[in-house]
Amino acid sequence: MRKPEFVYVTYIETTAEKLWEALTSSEFSRRYWFNTELKTDWKVGSPFALVMDGTTTDVGEVLEFDRPRRLSYTFHHVLSEAARKERPTRVVFNLEPHGKLVKLTLTHEDFEDGSVILDGISKGWPAILSSLKSMLESGTALAIPPSALGIEGFA
Amino acid sequence: MSKPEFVYITYIETTAEKLWHALTDGDFTERYWFGHRVASDWKVGSPYRFAKQGAGTIEGKVLISEPPKRLAYTWDPCSADAKRERTSRVTFDLEPRGNVIKLTVTHDNLDEGGKTLRDISGGWPMVIASLKSLLETGHASPADLPSCAAKEKTDA
Fold first, then answer.
1. What is the pTM of this model?
2. Most A CBs within 10 Å, among B133, B135, B144, B145, to test the A interface
3. Closest residue by Cα to residue B60 from B90, B85, B31
4. What CA–CA distance (Å, rounded) separates B131 from A86?
5. Is B97's CB within 8 Å of A98's CB?
6. Does B116 map to a domain?
7. How far is A131 from chain B (nearest CA, A)?
8. Omega before B68 cis (within 30°)?
9. Would you say residue B1 lies in a domain?
10. Are the Cβ atoms of A144 and B130 closer than 8 angstroms?
11. Do residues A96 and A103 make contact, with C-beta atoms less than 8 angstroms apart?
12. CB B36 within 8 A of CB B143
């Protein structure tokens, strides 16, 4: 049986440096990530938190910071009791330049069997990464209504 | 164990009508689908065919055609290797959400561990990323993906 994981690949017309900046700076994340800020100093081993509209939604620790190629952090959803009981998962971004494009591969893995957050992150990442691509290519992030994602409790 | 399927969701700032046109018009697909032109009358039961420089690449028949909401067709690569696999199916769902369209591509009825599964898992993210760029910025992804050229070689 294959381990549950979520993988999303997209291609963005940008540079690896600009994409790295967008993945690690709150100035950008607020625009494409539903007003989410990234609270961390990005040192390996440092704490990491996602703060949406002032509410901490996820916490973790920086695992890898290999600019501008590979970024990873642990990811522990803290908004619900059931999610808090699960072990932290892991998010990995791989950036590979191909000519004028960067191939971005997001892998979210290490879920417990029957994880309560797998469904939500599977709906969330495509919206976040679609908006990120739009922001980098056209200058404007997408205005996706949160309710469009179909995630319980996120509307 | 569930049969393998590939699902890819993206959000595009466009209208459902423009996205439908982009999925079904040969001049349009040629621009973002790395030179592949589609042709069909898009009636349910009708054949359709993708061709690159006149040579067939993918063919099948139209299963669902509900503009601008839902399009589905069977998927048979015109290559000797893939011919031995079962016919798979692609479904496009277009859902307006505010001023963006949620596009869900579902490719199912695939052979476990087959060449088609491998090819389409790499191919859809490239094609859909290019489609999104074309609709949002007016130009498709530059066709300088090494894996893209490699894929065409194996398709030929």
1. 0.93
2. B133
3. B90
4. 38
5. no
6. yes
7. 7
8. yes
9. no
10. no
11. yes
12. no
Using 50, 70 and 90 to split pLDDT, how confident is the model at B155? very low
Read off the tokens for B8. Answer: 């890819």
Contacts of A99 (CB under 8 A, 6+ apart): B142, B144, B145
Max Cα-Cα span within chain B: 44
Question: In order along chain A (155 residues), what is the average pLDDT of each group of 10 residues?
Answer: 85 97 98 97 98 96 98 96 94 96 97 93 97 97 92 81
Inter-chain CB proximity B142 and A9 less than 8 Å: no
Residues in A lying within 8 Å of B, measured between beta carbons? 1, 8-13, 98-101, 103, 123, 126-127, 130-131, 133-134, 137-138, 140, 142-145, 148
Residue of A nearest to B1 (CA): A1
Best residue of A9, A14, A34, A149 to probe chain B, by most B CBs closer than 10 Å: A9
What is the pLDDT, as a whole number, of residue B151? Answer: 46
Q: Where are the beta strands (DSSP E) in A67-100?
A: 70-77, 89-98
pLDDT at B84: 81
Q: Is the pLDDT of residue B156 over 70?
A: no
Q: What CATH number is associated with residue B130?
A: 3.30.530.20
CB-CB under 8 Å, B126 with A144: no
Range of the domain at B55: 6-155
Partner A, chain B 130-149, Cβ-Cβ below 8 Å: 130, 132-133, 136-137, 141-142, 144-147
A101, A130, A138: residue with CB nearest B10: A130
* Residue B68 maps to a domain: yes
Second CATH level (architecture) for the domain A16-139: 2-Layer Sandwich (3.30)
- ipTM for this model: 0.95
Interval B105-146: pLDDT, tens: 999 999 998 889 999 999 999 999 999 999 999 998 887 564
